[in-house]
Design goal:
alpha+beta, Peroxisomal Thiolase, Chain A, domain 1, five-stranded mixed beta sheet, 15 strands, globular
Length: 331
Amino acid sequence: MQQIQVGVSLVGSGSARLPVFLSNEELGQVVDTSDEWIQTRTGIQQRGLLQAHGSLSDLAATAGQSALEMAAVGATEVDLIILATSTPDDLFGSAAQVQAQLGATRAVAFDLTAACSGFVFALVTAAQYMRNGVYKTVLVIGADALSRWTDWTDRRTCVLFGDGAGAVVLKASDRDRLLGFEMHSDGALNGCLNLRYQADSDPLVEGKTVQKGTYQPITMNGKEVYRFAVKRVPEVIEKALFRADLTPADIQWLVLHQANQRILDAVADRLKVPSERVVSNMARYGNTSAASIPLALDEAVRDHRIQPGDIVASAGFGAGLTWGAAIFEWG
């Protein structure tokens, strides 16, 4: 009988970087804002934009291929692909398109939607399949193109969001390196951040109608989301650390969802993590939703800040509202 492997190792990372970026100065030509206003409040200097001919699937596949190459894993070895996204090319899902583009012919693929918490939720979901012995090699991708649903006349939101993709490869292992996790949702707070469908009535036959509509641009109560994040994110990391039998002092790298530099600073301060141990790249990419954690992780791995054996605390938080943390040992 084949022995079931119960451990999970993160063995490769990858990302896709867009060639077109919109600077704060350029954004000031679109809406009443300035580089100083944006940087002071968010820490963002520019954001990537998926162009009219681009697709979310292409972006996700590029990140996935990069991660597979680092892990020295062939596409046909992949058993499962989970694509964390809120902006698919197809409302029925884009993961299967990514599977085809990668040539991962053995892999089952599906989308997971949890907005800015999506990557953490997808990572934890993948681990459960692996710990049960169902799959041995999993590709987790976070990819979003929020520029598709940004109101470029609303300076409260348009300054925040950018497009991007990041990915990690998970392999079954005899030692579990996903050390602890914690996840939460609170739908009562949904109105603080959403991308809603707005229905119009379309008569079908006499006395009966159907819905015809579209999704509306992103709306956000920035003050409420900030208050939520600075309270809940440290809490969820501490709970995940408790499950891992670790303390904040054991964190070597803090890789949070790249929403706002002030949130990163507040969380690090509460956890007493030195600023030089906080991975931040939002100045260059903005808030890329489900892509932000794997994108930041990949940069830190490739420039050799994060080394094999390092303890990483990651946390996603955002629309839903949802929030979650995962503590893992890299490599």
